[in-house]
Amino acid sequence: MMRAGKLVLVLGMVVLAAGCQRLSGGPNYAAPLPATPTTPVGAGTLAPLDPNAAPPVGTTTDGTGAPADLASNPVSAPGNAQQVGRTDLLGGWKLASAGDNCMAFMTLTTWSGGYRANTRGCSTPTLSGISAWDLNGNQVVLKDGSGVIVAQLYSSEPGKFNGQTSVGSPISLYR
């Protein structure tokens, strides 16, 4: 019995070693890829980012090129706007605005201007720049990394928020 066990063990090791490409060196062995030459990284000083800089001309619907000032000129609440609590917004959401469809994720981690948020798969700078969210009464406010309001939304039905971005586009947040 002991001899049969040893025989099975030895045969198993032989089969394992034969199946290993590193030990076989046969025709199926993949050779390592050659190194790819790269250009050296240049040295220099970058200008600091200006969080108050206006977006490129032509990014708003009014033709002025300046973003809408949602902080001093908020989007008005619809008549059927529902009350919403912080925990109602936690987790993953689908985000749609101006032909861009992506995901938004909201947490209760405190961050400048509210709570931490991030987006995934957004192609427009407006949506990909969302870094925070907050509640202002029954209004959901989405902000960028410098605390500038990106969008304001209201809930008119459970699990769905509609509003406007700072560049004047309609925006929806839904599950």
From TrEMBL:
Source superkingdom: Bacteria
Chain segments carrying region Disordered: 41-67
Family indicated by similarity: Belongs to the rhizobiaceae omp19 lipoprotein family.
Signal peptide range: 1-30
InterPro entries, per the entry: Inh/Omp19, OM_lipoprot_Omp19_bac, Protease_inh_B-barrel_dom
Taxonomy of the source species: Bacteria, Pseudomonadati, Pseudomonadota, Alphaproteobacteria, Hyphomicrobiales
Protein name: Protease inhibitor Inh
The keyword Lipoprotein appears for this protein: yes
PROSITE patterns, per database record: PROKAR_LIPOPROTEIN
Membrane topology: Lipid-anchor
Low complexity composition bias: residue spans: 55-67
Keywords, comma-separated and alphabetical: Cell outer membrane, Lipoprotein, Membrane, Palmitate, Signal
All copies of domain Alkaline proteinase inhibitor/ Outer membrane lipoprotein Omp19, residue ranges: 86-175
GO molecular function list: endopeptidase inhibitor activity
Principal subcellular localization: membrane
One Pfam family of this chain: Inh
Compartment(s) where it occurs, according to its Swiss-Prot or TrEMBL record: Cell outer membrane
Entry GO CC: cell outer membrane
